[in-house]
């Protein structure tokens, strides 16, 4: 499963991407979710998949579905100010992404 959000932000300014996640136990050690910031806006999923992320923020722990973990990373907006949040899961068990935020670091 994938999710996508397009945003226009101020070029050259610093921002944080933040989200909470949970991955249900009992799957593989490689189960994870990933939230990435892509440069630009995309009308086709295949183009978003082919884009090189500005940053990828993967989950780091499998603590079960009721135990959400907060993840945060800093980015600098590209010159165009156009970015997309691309979210996906690679999981054999249930995985959750919640409270996705993109906000100014100032």
Summary?
With 106 residues, the protein is mainly beta.
Which helices and strands, and how do they pair?
Layout: E1 2-8, E2 14-23, E3 32-39, H1 45-50, E4 55-58, E5 69-76, E6 82-90, E7 95-104
Taken from the alpha-carbon principal axes, the silhouette is globular
SSE order, as H and E? EEEHEEEE
Instruction: Output the strand order for the largest sheet.
Output: 1-6-3-4
* Spatial extent as radius of gyration: 14 Å
Q: Ends: how far apart?
A: 33 Å
The share of residues in extended strands comes to over 45%
Count of individual helical segments: 1
Instruction: Please tell me the overall pLDDT.
Output: 91
Q: Strand count, sense and closure of the main sheet?
A: 4 strands, antiparallel
Helix content: under 10%
Q: In terms of structural class, how would the helical and strand content be classed? A: mainly beta
Multimeric state: single chain
Low-confidence sequence ranges? none
Number of strands: 7
């Amino acid at each position: 499963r994938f999710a996508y959000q397009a945003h226009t932000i101020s070029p050259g300014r610093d921002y944080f991407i933040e989200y909470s996640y949970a991955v249900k136990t009992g799957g593989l050690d490689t189960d994870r979710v990933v939230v990435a910031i892509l440069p630009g806006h995309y009308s086709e999923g295949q183009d978003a998949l082919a884009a090189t992320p500005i940053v990828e923020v993967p989950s780091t722990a499998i603590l079960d579905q009721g135990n959400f973990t907060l993840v945060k990373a800093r980015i600098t907006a590209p010159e165009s100010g156009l970015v997309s949040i691309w979210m996906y899961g690679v999981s054999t068990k249930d995985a959750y992404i919640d409270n996705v935020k993109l906000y100014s670091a100032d």
